Amino acid sequence: MNHSDFWRGRRVFITGHTGFKGSWLTLWLLSLGAEVWGYARAPEPGHALFTDLDLDQATGNADWGKLQHKLGDLSDLQAVSRCVQDAQPQVVIHLAAQPLVRRSYRDPLGTWATNVQGSLHLLEALKPLQHPCAVVMVTTDKVYANREWDYGYREEDRLGGHDPYSASKAAAELAIASWRVSFCGSGAHQTPHLAIATARAGNVIGGGDWAEDRIVPDAMRSLAAGEAIPVRRPEATRPWQHVLEPLGGYLLLAEQLATAAQTHASTFNFGPALEANRSVRELVEAALGHWPGSWRDLSDPNAPHEAGRLHLQIDKAHHQLGWQPRWPFATTVERTVGWYRAVHEGASPLECCIADLESYLSPCP
Length: 365
What we know:
The protein is of the alpha/beta class.
């Protein structure tokens, strides 16, 4: 998967490269020899994986690619357009977003502006390109109208969203689909150069996520401080997957878009195997098996709404792209907690990330 002969020297434009997933993706692409152009806001204050990895300084390894690190906001169409024109990308992976449910209740307008208008600004900036470009627009598993089903959502299921974050991402899916059918093609008002797909991933965990109001960062901060882990919704279930799983899916989808453009210009779910759909309680207790501690129940019936049950069907990605998850739930938790504990004890974040990437890409037993 993700052969270096495809990515070596390829110009890749990533939005949100300073975030958790963006930092991992940038590292992966640099290791494959890609020429990465990153466009994002500065990392969040405090701990940030991008800063810990020194990715803006790239690496001294001659076999690795190079990073062009640009700070900017997707609300600035002219700035995005200038950066795209400078990069002349062959692949675009759009990760930039306001990704937190609870923050979306505090800043709904900012969430909608970033997740919808920001996505459209990027597509508008790509329109003048005069060469083929594969575009992967990343949304979320929360775009579906959640009915608390026991079975997984498929790509053709109804979109929706109770909270501002979920609704804004569902709206982004509709806007991207409309843009694709309106402006991709051979008409006078269209461009023949862009192949656009959207990708919906499950709940990602992995080393280096320090965001607020996420269970793994909250848990790791508590364990490092010798405190009980605060758990808001212990019985809520999520499709837990290591961050490398969907990133591998995005890279594979981009490869397929670049070689069989319109065949895959649609929507794909990237989630874990069924056994990884676990409750928050199970996730926390599994984590405590690798870093002993305790947890406390902070359930609040008056808290803002969040989905209780969530699960993705990934048949389409398997059959059309040949993609499937590589790590089971136990390995995902082990590698995630191991990363945080090792870094807490003085290990290099970069070396820990490279070790996880090498393990993930090694042949399955």
